[in-house]
Amino acid sequence: MSQFDVLCIGNAIVDIIAQADEAFLVENGIIKAAMNLIDADRANLLYQRMGPAIEASGGSAGNTAAGIASFGGRAAFFGKVAEDTLGDIYYHDIRAHGVAFDTQPLKGPPPTARSMIFVTPDGERSMNTYLGACVELGPEDVEPEKAQGALVTYFEGYLWDPPRAKDAIRLTARLAHEAGRQVSMTLSDSFCVDRYRDEFLDLMRSGMVDIVFANSHEIKSLYQTSSFETALDMIRKDCRIAAVTRSEKGSMIVRGDETVTVKPTAVGEIVDTTGAGDLYAAGFLYGYTKGRSLQDCGDLGSLAAGLVIQQIGPRPRQNLREEAINAGLL
Q1: In this protein, which residues make up the domain named Carbohydrate kinase PfkB (predicted)?
Q2: Domains of the chain by range and CATH?
Q3: Which DSSP state fits 252?
Q4: Span 253-281, pLDDT tens digits
C-alpha cells in the first residue's frame, strides 16, 4: 500500500499578489508573464512600490499539492522555509489544505522566499521571485519513507535553479524508482527551459522523469521550434507521458502513439492565471494515481485550472472533489 498518492517537491514561496497596469511593468523593468528571479534589494523595492496586496502561500509544486488534497488525494511536500513570520504562514497554510509537510525550517538567514506577483487586466501574472531559504533545500531534507511511499513524485523545473536542490531531487527520484514508483516534472517556464534545456532533455531521455507537464510555449522552447505539432511529436518520443496545456484551446496528452485531446473548462471572467498549470497538474495526477484514463485525468486537470483562474490566488477556494462530482467527473 502506498503512503501517499503524490509527493511534491518545490520552492516554498509566499506569494504577494497585487493588480497592476501595463505601464507599471514597463516603468519597473518587469518581464510580463514570466518568472523573474530577483535579489533581496529588488524584492524590497518592488514591495514598496506595489499597491494593496494579498499574501498567500504559493510556489508551483506547493499549489499542486494543495490541489491534490482538495480532490481528496493524499499529498506530501518537500520545501524549505525559514523560522520567520512568512515561514510560519507557509507551514500553516499548506497543512491547513491537508498536505503532509515536515521539512525542517532553516534556523538562520536567508529568510523565507517571497514572490511579488503583478496581475495585469488581461489576467496575466508577472512573477518576481526572491528564493531566500529555498536555495537551502538539500539531500538532508529528503524523507526516504515519503519518497518510497508516494505513487508519483512531482517536482517543478523552477527547483533546478538552486544547485543543492538538484541533488535532493535526484536522490528522491532514485528512491522512488527503486520502490517501483514514477517521477514527474513540470517545465515551469519558457525562460527556465532556456536555462536548463539540455539537462531537462537528459532527465526525460535517461528515464529519470516518466511524466512531463508543459504549456505550448515551454514545449516549443524545449525543442527550439516554432511549430507546436513538431514539438509534440518530439516529446512523445522522449518521455512516457506528456501533458501539454494550450490555454483556451484546452490540452493535449500523448503516450507513445496515443493522443488525447482535452477541452478547456468553460469559464466566466479570467481574473488571475496564477496557478493554472499547477492546478492542471493536480487534477491530472489525482486522476492518474486513482487509475483513471488519460481523458479523465485531463478533464480533471482542466476543471481545476478553469476554477483557479477565476479567482485571485493560486490555491483552490472550492472543494475540488465536490466540484468534480458536480461536473460528473468523479
Answers
A1: 57-315
A2: 4-11+59-108+135-327 (3.40.1190.20)
A3: E
A4: 999 999 999 998 888 888 777 789 999 99
